[in-house]
Amino acid sequence: MRVIVTRPAVQAAAWVQSLAQRGIDAVALPLIDIVAPDDTEAVREAWHGLGQQQLVVFVSPNAAEQFFALRPESGHGAWPAGVLAASVGPGTSECLKRHEVPPACIVEPAADSAQFDSEALWHELARRRAWQGAAVLIVRGDGGRDWLADTLRAQGASVRFVAAYRRAAARFEGESLALVQAAIAQPAEHLWFFSSSEAIDHLAQAWPDVSWAGACAMATHPRIAQRARDCGFGVIRETRPTLDAVVACIQSFAS
Predict the structure, then answer these.
(1) From CA 240, how far away is CA 242, in angstroms rounded?
(2) Whole-angstrom distance, CA of residue 112 vs CA of residue 115
(3) How much is the average pLDDT of 68-95?
(4) Taking the mean position of all CA atoms in its chain, how far away is CA 243?
């Protein structure tokens, strides 16, 4: 089965390379395009106030990449001492490390967490300190879940958001169009790899009359798996979003 990696372009390319190194035929089909935020100045202002935060939460690798891409050229060197950088999973943490955030400043879910999400991150944050009176910045795209923000506010933290990017539906043309058409025509020869409910929505909206009953999919979270079921995918298996877990899940389909 050919694995169709639906993450945004940068992460999809990395996954395709990693899977190829394990001998797996994979191809990138980003179902979400990452574009600049409407208000880039708000991100630069967030950088200027970074040292006044006790915690900066990055909700995804794209949030981290785009936040650092908009860092002002002058006056911002090392990550501010004493400011924690929270990550929802290993992909986001690796991105933060590439941008020279000290590992000691990074808070992330435990490596053996059943899921890498806001709930798992909060488990670690709650162990770290009390959040009464803390200033917290959440870096995300244009919208998203508010569960972690609501939880921090309930503990007395002052929480604000900054949108470091916008999500847009991918356009199907050329190779991407041919790939979807092949997956529809030969569902048993393709395996969809979903890490976002929104990505599934974009696929369903672009191909509203297609039956996905014969298609197989992997999903990295129960909410994503449920969205795939709602769209009619015939076989769906959940997997943790680590390379070893994903490879094992792919092999389970092959067997």
Answers:
(1) 6
(2) 8
(3) 88
(4) 15
